[in-house]
Amino acid sequence: MRKYIAVDAHVHLWEKQQGRVEGRPVTGVGGGKSNFGGEIRQMLPPYMDDDRNTAERLIANMDYAGVSACVVTQEYIDGNQDEYLMAAKAKYPDRMKICSLYEESLQFRTEGVDGIKICAGRLSDRDLKKLLPVFLAAEQAGKFISIDMADGEEQVADLQYLIDACPGLKIAIGHFGMVTRPGWQEQIALARNQNVSIESGGLTWLFHQEFYPYPSAVDAILEARDICGIEKLMWGSDYPRTMTDITYRMALRFLEETPKLSEAEKRAFLGENALRFYGFPKAERMQEIPNML
Fold first, then answer.
1. What's the pTM value of the predicted model, to 2 decimals?
2. N or C: which end of the chain has fewer CB within 10 A?
3. What SS3 state is found at 173?
4. What's residue 145's pLDDT?
């Protein structure tokens, strides 16, 4: 049996990538690579050679890494995956929560999903106060908001306005507040509000140049803990893009093995906080699968 219950608060899925970046298309070209607005990027691990980032592959990775449940978020660079995510959740209802994708000038979805994803740093109009109807609708429907904010303090005051206007709404701030950018602590401080938490999707990407075992990333977790409390912080991997250089197991293992976090802090950060925030009533510790090593 694994030592901790692990819940991944930030993963992505797509049957077919058909997104956009700065108005230019993002599409798979084979071998896990994508045409990223005119530049070829390794979007997926190369063994995903058909460019399909499927629920079945995610579940297999979760089983091996010992991850009990996950939250599937979205990104404009992948294109709207609402329909695929609803089909994936129907197949694995106890293993995932899913977000619909908020897109400007289009009707947003609350039915059939658990939350709404807002890529706030990519909005053409970055005044978050104008999204009050979206936040109110999510609160009324009992959904959560998953939001990746623009770097630093730019949107902090706007989000505080929305937090005050929707006191019963759960809000998860992604990418650990863009921790390697100036002013990231201001995003973390928003989690002092009762229903706001921080998830660490993309943490290994943001500290990629340092690489495994990411000691500065662990130090950032400790700094965030001192700002808002360990109970407001949740682990996220940003699967599968961060798996182009490390394995899914490694995204979890560097935190399990660090001596800088106490056992209680590891339990809270890796899974217990997300269980409480998102509500996974059936999540249990996973059986450990021995490998050929």
1. 0.97
2. C
3. strand
4. 98
